[in-house]
Amino acid sequence: MSEKLIAEKLIIGNASHSYEVAQGWGKLPEGIAYGYTHGIVVDENDNVYVHNTGKDSVIKFDKDGNFITSWGPEFEGGAHGFYLHRDNDGIEYLYFADTNRALVVKTTLDGETLLEIGGPDRPDLYDAERRYVPTDVCVAPNGDIYVSDGYGQFYIHHYDAEGNYIRSWGGRGSEPGQVIEPHGISINLRGEEPEIYVADRRNSRIQVFTLEGEHKRFVDHNLDLPCSFYFFGDEVYIPDLDSRITVLDRDDRLITHLGEDQQAYKQQGWPNLPKSYYRPDKFSSPHGVCVDSQGNVYVAEWIFDGRVTKLIRQQ
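The structure assignment produced for this chain is given below.
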């Protein structure tokens, strides 16, 4: 990876993926503060939604970083997985995984709750000692909903569009079909058929499944604690918690690492480091990523008072 200051622009990336760091993007108005920033998504108009653990848990900006609105006190403390999906009715919706309330929630872009899904009725998997803690959610082309229990018992749960339970798979382990901390989940539409990508974080790999939960393959190169996914064209953008954004091509081969800092996660007290440590062109603890229609990249980091970065695509 190369980086340089050109005509007072801070540039990171490589020859094919070059970005200007938009320093100071996304100013918060007085009276609004981030908690831990976890998820970030962009809508069809390139408005950006930041999901964080503060009382204003959803904060909306325009593409230039101007504050538009905020909402979502019900997610305070539990904000985690965040997914935007255009359903078959042609409308975009937000999907949330709330770790505190053990809920998956579907809302409009304005925050009106449309659906809530609690834990599955699986006493063989869950009880008072074996908790259910959903960390991410995604939606297949047919509307089916998939939830990753990344902080509980490490299962993937499959529901229909109305929230009716269909199946589960996974469980702790490193064999095909098993996972350790399935932190993120998304749908890959780049191939001949849709696939489920699971960020099998503590195994430092991606595990790929059919929509029915059958193991297909691993992606286990060039990753370091992958958190989640954002598919953009033929590429997939992955926040590696160990201090970088990883970009893979259609065949899941490495294109580049963005903002890599191999010292950050080794610092005492990480991820909450002294403010003097942070640099605008380096990441410390990336947790969420999205890409707008122009190829600009937005990164949310797992830091107690939040950190959001915009990278403006140059080429």
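Interim note for the steering committee: Residues 34-253 form a domain with the Neuraminidase fold (CATH 2.120.10.30). The mean pLDDT is 96.
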